[in-house]
C-alpha cells in the first residue's frame, strides 16, 4: 500500500492516524504529495490529485473517510470484507471531479479581480485529467447508469460543467459524451435538471 499525504492536511492526517492505530505502518509506505503542483506524484495514480490518496493493488481510494475505512477493514476491523472497494474508489474519483467543477463555478461568480487565476488553472488541469480518465472508463463500459451514486454525481458534474461552458470541447471525449447523452435522457435526469 502507498499512502500519499501532505504534512498539514487534516484529511491526510486521519489516514496516517489509521495506519498507526491499526498497526499497518509496516504494510504501507507514506509518500509526500505536492498538491496543486504539476509534478504531484499522486497524478500517476489519480486524476483528482488530492490527499489522502491510498493506492493498493488496482484500487485508488481518495476520500478521507473511505481511506480510513479501507485501512481499518484491511486490518481486520469492523465490517471487514463487506464493502465493494472498487465502487468506493470510483466514487472518490468522481466526487473529486464534482468538487472541482463546483469550485470552478463558484470562483467564476466572483468579480474578475477577486478570482484566483492560479486556482482556476489548477481546477482546469484537474478537469482535463478527469475527463480523459472518465472517457477511458466509459469506453470500457465501466460507468453504470445514474441509479448508482457515482454515475449520478458524474452526470451532474458534467451537466454543470457543460452549462457553465467550462470546457466547450469536452465532448471530444466521445465515449464519455455518448454515456452522458444516454444518462441525460433518463427521466430522473430530466426531472431534476438545474435551473441555471
UniProtKB/TrEMBL annotation:
Top-level taxon in the UniProt lineage = Bacteria
Chloroplast is among the record's keywords: no
Q: Name one GO molecular function term.
A: transferase activity
Query: Which keywords label this protein?
Result: Transferase
Q: Name one Pfam family in it.
A: GST_N_3
Protein's name according to its UniProt entry: Putative glutathione S-transferase
- What species was this sequence derived from? Glycocaulis alkaliphilus
Amino acid at each position: 500500500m502507498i499512502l500519499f499525504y501532505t504534512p498539514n492536511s487534516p484529511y491526510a492526517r486521519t489516514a496516517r492516524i489509521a495506519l498507526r492505530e491499526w498497526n499497518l505502518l509496516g504494510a504501507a509506505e507514506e509518500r509526500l504529495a505536492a498538491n496543486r503542483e504539476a509534478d504531484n506524484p499522486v497524478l500517476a495514480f489519480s486524476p483528482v490529485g488530492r490527499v489522502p490518496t491510498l493506492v493498493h493493488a488496482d484500487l485508488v481510494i481518495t476520500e478521507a473517510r473511505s481511506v480510513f475505512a479501507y485501512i481499518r477493514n484491511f486490518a481486520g476491523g469492523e465490517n471487514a470484507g463487506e464493502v465493494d472497494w472498487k465502487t468506493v474508489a470510483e466514487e472518490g474519483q468522481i466526487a473529486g471531479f464534482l468538487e472541482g467543477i463546483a469550485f470552478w463555478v463558484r470562483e467564476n461568480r466572483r468579480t474578475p479581480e477577486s478570482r484566483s487565476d492560479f486556482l482556476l488553472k489548477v481546477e482546469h488541469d484537474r478537469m482535463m485529467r478527469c475527463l480523459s480518465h472518465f472517457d477511458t472508463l466509459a469506453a470500457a463500459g465501466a460507468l453504470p447508469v445514474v441509479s448508482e451514486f457515482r454515475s449520478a454525481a458524474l452526470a451532474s458534474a458534467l451537466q454543470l460543467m457543460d452549462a457553465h461552458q467550462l470546457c466547450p470541447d469536452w465532448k471530444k471525449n466521445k465515449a464519455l459524451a455518448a454515456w452522458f447523452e444516454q444518462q441525460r435522457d433518463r427521466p430522473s435526469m430530466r426531472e431534476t435538471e438545474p435551473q441555471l
